[in-house]
Amino acid sequence: MRKLTYFIACSIDGFIGDPEGDASAMMRFVDEEFLAFLKAEYPETLPTHGRRPLGIDDLPNQRFDTILQGRASYDIALKEGITSPYAHLREYVASRTLKESPDPNVEIIADDPVGRVRKLKAEDGPLGIYLCGGSVLAGELLDEIDELVIKTYPIVQGAGMPMFGAGFSVTEFALGSVRTFTNGVLVRTYSRER
User: Fold this and answer.
1) Residue 130: exposed, middle, or buried by beta-carbon count in 10 A (0-12, 13-18, 19+)?
2) pLDDT per residue over 71-125, tens digit each?
3) CB within 8 A of 23, min separation 6: which ones?
4) Partners of 94 in the beta sheet?
5) Do the Cβ atoms of 186 and 152 come closer than 8 Å?
């Protein structure tokens, strides 16, 4: 069974963006040391249009071969005219409003994202599924998430978009590892307690 990993950036107080979802305040922490970590351990999480200038477009995928993201996350690329932001992965966008995909590489999941994720997880293969965001989609898929990789940036936002847009529910994960960076970023990995 393949894993669904929610690989997400957040503030110290658990917000993945401001109230509208803008996470640009965190971008300044993607310095040389942190970028080297991403390139070495999670190269497929960098968008295709960012991989090319970094000279890593030909790096093989190490952890994921599939990406699932919500409409708001996908819209960030669409606003820049990028219709396939992760062309090096199989791309799925969960959206009830986007009826037709603007790109043949991107499949729209209009309903039952949980059912689709279960089918993706049941496929054979050594690589997993990267849940890129957003908050509402992560909330809907909480029971299917096998691993959390939380990149915590050293800022407090006070308010904003939470990591999980869902009702109250206690779900346990076990801490696997913590990595610290000189710029104050922490990367914590958790596995689902089942």
Assistant:
1) buried
2) 989 998 999 999 999 999 999 999 999 989 999 999 999 999 999 999 999 999 9
3) 9, 16, 17
4) 70, 109
5) yes
